[in-house]
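Is this the right way to post structure tokens for a design question? Let me know if I should format differently. Anyway, here goes:
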């Protein structure tokens, strides 16, 4: 389905951008930046496919997603290598906002893609559908953060996983009334909206300290 493929590409570019930009900020070389970009964009989908018994995972059967991730990473590498001032001064705030937007778009896109993949394989369990939706959305970012030496973003910042859960639930409900494509678009947009609102208003889940 063309609409699903477009959502996948949007999510791939968004997550690859967030992974590459973390690599750039960590002063990694171009190989490390590409590894983080690919991991962020495709890691969640790989976990999803393994859970669903899809072997080899789709990232190894269709290289277009890896190619898109590499191109995205290389373009960002060239941009910041030629314009290093973008990583300092008042541009840091712009960088943080850009990261939040890219991460939100990727989270929304891959949450609904995870659910759609499971449904296409004939799975009907609500818990399984929600799980693969969320793990597709947050899995790549978790692996990225661990590889970059950071505490996974999902554990400490805003309502990250909760936004994915809300979008996954909304997707399953909307599919009953609006059809697959429209439900996926609205649910993905809902995830993005929640993430951006959470970042703007600094919503966080309760913690000990």
């Amino acid at each position: 389905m063309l609409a699903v493929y477009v959502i996948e590409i949007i999510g791939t570019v968004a997550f690859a951008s967030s992974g590459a930009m973390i690599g750039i900020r960590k002063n990694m070389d171009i190989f490390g930046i590409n590894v983080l970009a690919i991991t962020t964009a495709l890691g969640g989908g790989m976990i999803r496919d393994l859970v669903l018994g899809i072997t080899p995972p789709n990232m190894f059967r269709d290289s277009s997603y890896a190619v898109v991730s590499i191109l995205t990473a290389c373009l960002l590498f060239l941009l910041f290598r030629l314009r290093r001032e973008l990583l300092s001064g008042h541009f840091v705030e712009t960088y943080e906002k850009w990261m939040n937007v890219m991460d939100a778009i990727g989270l929304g896109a891959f949450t609904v893609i995870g659910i759609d993949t499971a449904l296409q394989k004939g799975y009907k369990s609500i818990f399984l559908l929600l799980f693969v939706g969320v793990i597709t959305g947050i899995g790549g970012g978790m692996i990225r953060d661990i590889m970059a030496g950071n505490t996974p973003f999902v554990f400490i910042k805003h309502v990250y996983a909760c936004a994915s859960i809300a979008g996954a639930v909304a997707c399953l409900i909307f599919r009953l009334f609006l059809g697959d494509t429209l439900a996926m678009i609205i649910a993905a947009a809902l995830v993005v909206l929640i993430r951006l609102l959470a970042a703007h208003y600094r919503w966080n889940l309760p913690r000990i300290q």
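Format looks fine. Someone answered above. Worth noting: The mean pLDDT is 87. The chain is about 80% helix and 0% strand.
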